[in-house]
């Protein structure tokens, strides 16, 4: 999916909601455990319930690969089920020496190799340019680079001063020389709004993937006030607050209600 198609979808749905498919077998409703593939059975109903409110879906790969081959199968079926108009994110946080990154890119971007055909993958910047550029070698595929993450550990390295400025600023400045706003996005945690104006100064046109509203307590209002640009420019993710709004047979209805509440708030900011 390209930049304009993504923006068009945001404008049409009046939403920049990304539903995170962090599907935890221990948290899904008991009645689904009798299904042959409980994870897919859960995801299918979540996708059906939220697709009118969401522009993107983000399966977190850990929740699938933890189950071995059966988990990869659930992931494949889930990806194939996501409506075509929605942007898809493999939240895998990969990155390694060049030839290894090349194989990670094939895993998520080359259906003839792996069966998977994601629009984007999350990548860690720590190993530098040659660990990131193999993901940029695929047409119409995106890298979503970790810039300033939502967790407390973000202070350990990302906020460390380097030449008088936090390390994450150097990551942003360097990375925009590798890919433009049509190929590269950045992860910025919703808990990091104190840094968001500065981030928007450095990358005014790039999309930001913003996780951390809902269960991690980030403010959609604050993120939107500072982070939106003329093309939307944000994908705001919520996972647990949508997926596990109920653990009963009404889980999909409750997920829809959560997604709708977020979408309606987003519509007021667009
Ligand atoms: O890359 C991510 O998506 C990510 C980056 C980050 O800084 N913080 C963060 O929470 N995430 C992911 O976003 C999702 C957040 O889930 P909830 O807190 O349940 O909404 C999880 O899949 C995390 O792995």
TrEMBL record:
The keyword Lyase applies. It comes from the Bacteria. It catalyses: orotidine 5'-phosphate + H(+) = UMP + CO2. GO terms for biological process: 'de novo' pyrimidine nucleobase biosynthetic process; 'de novo' UMP biosynthetic process. Pathway: Pyrimidine metabolism; UMP biosynthesis via de novo pathway; UMP from orotate: step 2/2. Gene3D superfamilies: Aldolase class I. One of its GO terms (molecular function) is orotidine-5'-phosphate decarboxylase activity. Pfam families: OMPdecase (PF00215). Its EC number is 4.1.1.23. Keywords: Decarboxylase, Lyase, Pyrimidine biosynthesis. Residues 16-255 form the Orotidine 5'-phosphate decarboxylase domain. Belongs to the OMP decarboxylase family. Type 2 subfamily. This is Orotidine-5'-phosphate decarboxylase. It comes from Arsenicibacter rosenii.
């Amino acid at each position: 999916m390209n930049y304009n198609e993504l923006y068009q979808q945001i404008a049409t749905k009046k939403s920049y909601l990304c539903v995170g498919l962090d599907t935890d077998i221990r948290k899904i409703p008991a009645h689904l455990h009798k299904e042959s593939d409980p994870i897919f059975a859960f995801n299918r109903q979540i996708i059906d319930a939220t697709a009118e409110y969401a522009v993107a879906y983000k399966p977190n790969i850990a929740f699938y690969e933890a189950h071995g081959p059966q988990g990869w199968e659930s992931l494949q079926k889930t990806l194939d089920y996501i409506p075509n108009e929605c942007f898809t994110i493999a939240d895998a946080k990969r990155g390694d020496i060049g030839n290894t990154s090349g194989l990670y890119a094939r895993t998520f971007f080359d259906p003839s190799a792996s069966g998977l055909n994601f629009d984007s993958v999350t990548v860690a910047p720590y190993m530098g340019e040659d660990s990131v550029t193999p993901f940029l070698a695929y047409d119409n595929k995106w890298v979503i680079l970790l810039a300033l993450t939502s967790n407390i550990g973000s202070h350990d390295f990302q906020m460390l001063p380097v030449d008088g400025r936090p390390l994450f600023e150097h990551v942003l400045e360097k990375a925009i020389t590798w890919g433009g706003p049509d190929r590269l996005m950045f992860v910025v945690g919703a808990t990091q709004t104190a840094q968001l104006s500065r981030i928007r100064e450095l990358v005014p046109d790039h999309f930001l993937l913003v996780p951390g509203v809902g269960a991690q307590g980030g403010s959609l209002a604050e993120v939107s006030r500072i982070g939106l640009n003329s093309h939307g420019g944000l994908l705001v993710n919520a996972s647990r607050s949508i997926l596990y709004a109920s653990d009963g047979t009404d889980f999909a209805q409750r997920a829809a209600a959560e997604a709708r509440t977020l979408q309606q708030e987003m519509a007021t900011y667009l």
